[in-house]
Design brief:
Helix content is 32%, strand content 21%. The chain has 336 residues and is of the alpha+beta class. It has two domains: 45-201, Beta-Lactamase (2-Layer Sandwich); 215-335, Beta-Lactamase (2-Layer Sandwich), CATH 3.30.450. It is elongated and about 70 Å long. The N and C termini lie far apart (123 Å). 28% of the residues are buried.
Length: 336
């Protein structure tokens, strides 16, 4: 009798052990096992996004996409362009995880501001639906808000953003300093909306708020605007634009020379195709200013010579500011 009871107990123990080991096997199977979030992962990330909100989305992502998404989590502010892109990526993750209402609410709050970085969102009609400054909520990118103090229509350029993203450079108020500064913005279209963030830079050559009462500063700002147009629209569009009468501002106009120093954009169409190193670069006083102008760099160069002022039709002293950019010479000048 005792032997029988002993054997029954042993059988029960063996069956229980088999069930336990089977369960462990299935729990540890690489086909079904998922790493749980650690205590640190469950804490709010330094960029204030809770990783637990991303877990479901991350599980649906492929291995390569998951790696790309994680890259934006630890970008340092020392890498200002990288941090800007990461700010937009964070906004896209919040939108995908929590939806439009929660995303708009968050990015309309001061809580979303990180120093000079903040995110603003435009809808399908190019109207701002989220911005930490409530003054801008409801305004259109196509209105005055989308035009900087130099007249550059950056709002219209932001509206052309695609899912691939694009950089737009313009002048805007830096809330961290209270000053108008050069802003480098990264814009991405996602689900019909446009998500944008950017970082600021003070350029020593940028004459903020320059007026014609200071013709030298206005000339520098006029060329800076042309450089931003080039960065936003590309070479072909820029050359076409500065070959139109609409690009002329009184005695100010932009001229562009190609890599061979041939004129490809000018207010006077009769001069197109001429070589800066030859007759075009020689003034009536015998000064070959073209030889000096071709030496310009990205830092810019002033050259002073005699040229016909299209606003008066007379030969006058011209003070020209020329910058080498992407192999081209882009410049403008003022007369006296």
């Amino acid at each position: 009798m005792r032997n029988r009871i002993f054997h029954i107990r042993m059988a029960v123990v063996l069956v229980a052990a088999a069930v336990f080991l089977s369960g462990c096997y299935h729990m540890m199977s690489p086909r079904t096992w998922k790493p749980s979030l650690s205590r640190m992962d469950r804490m709010v990330h330094p960029d204030r996004m809770d990783r637990t909100d991303l877990q479901d989305k991350m599980d649906r992502m492929g291995r390569s996409d998951r790696s790309d998404a994680k890259q934006g989590w630890h970008v340092s502010k020392a890498d200002r362009p990288g941090y800007t892109v990461a700010m937009v990526e964070k906004a896209l993750r919040i939108y995908d995880a929590k939806g439009l209402e929660a995303t708009v609410e968050y990015y309309s709050s001061q809580e979303s501001v990180d120093g000079e970085w903040y995110v603003f969102i435009a809808d399908e009609n190019n109207d701002l639906i989220a911005h930490p400054n409530p003054v801008y909520v409801g305004v259109s990118l196509m209105d005055e808000t989308g035009i900087d103090i130099t007249g550059y229509k950056h709002g219209a350029v932001i509206a052309t953003a695609t899912e691939e993203g694009k950089w737009i450079d313009y002048i805007f108020l830096n809330p961290a300093t209270g000053q108008q500064e050069y802003k480098h913005a990264w814009a991405v279209r996602h689900d019909g909306l446009i998500f944008v963030s950017g970082w600021y830079q003070v350029l020593p050559t940028l004459s903020l708020g320059a007026t014609k009462t200071d013709p030298a500063e206005y000339t520098v700002a006029f060329v800076d605007r042309a450089l931003r147009h080039y960065q936003a629209h590309g070479r072909e569009n820029t050359v076409a634009h500065y070959n139109t009468p609409e690009s002329v501002d009184g005695s100010w106009y932009v001229y562009i020379f190609d890599e061979d120093d041939l004129l490809i954009a000018h207010a006077n169409q009769d001069l197109l195709g001429m070589d800066l190193k030859e007759e075009l670069g020689l003034d009536s006083a015998g000064y070959h200013f073209g030889d000096d102008m071709v030496e310009t760099t990205a830092e810019g160069l002033w050259v002073h010579y005699v040229f016909v002022n299209p606003a008066t039709g007379e030969e006058e002293t011209k003070h020209a500011w020329a910058v080498r950019h992407d192999g081209l010479i882009i410049g403008s000048g003022w007369y006296e």
